Amino acid sequence: NVLNAVSLNAVSSIQNTGITVGARVNTTNYLNVRVSPSLIANILGTQPANVAGTVIKGPIYANGYTWWKISYDTGPDGWSVENWLRK
Prior knowledge:
The protein is an alpha+beta fold. The longest helix is centred in the first third of the chain and has 16 residues, at about 1-15. It has a five-stranded antiparallel β-sheet. Strands 2-3 form a two-stranded antiparallel sheet. The N and C termini lie far apart (about 30 Å). About 20% of the residues lie in helices and about 45% in strands.
């Protein structure tokens, strides 16, 4: 069943990164921060590498990426792709 495979992959993704709502994360590279979890959503700004923040929503799976809404300590807050975040 395709739905079950997607669900299992989603759980694996969360477990592998350790990122969850409430977690503290840092950016690993320059990262666009978007108004919603989509590659075509408006960009609110960019966060440079090594900026810290707190995960406030997610995960959302869209456009082949896992997205988390981050309240960054400085700069714009919004949806960011998991690939450039570390716990």
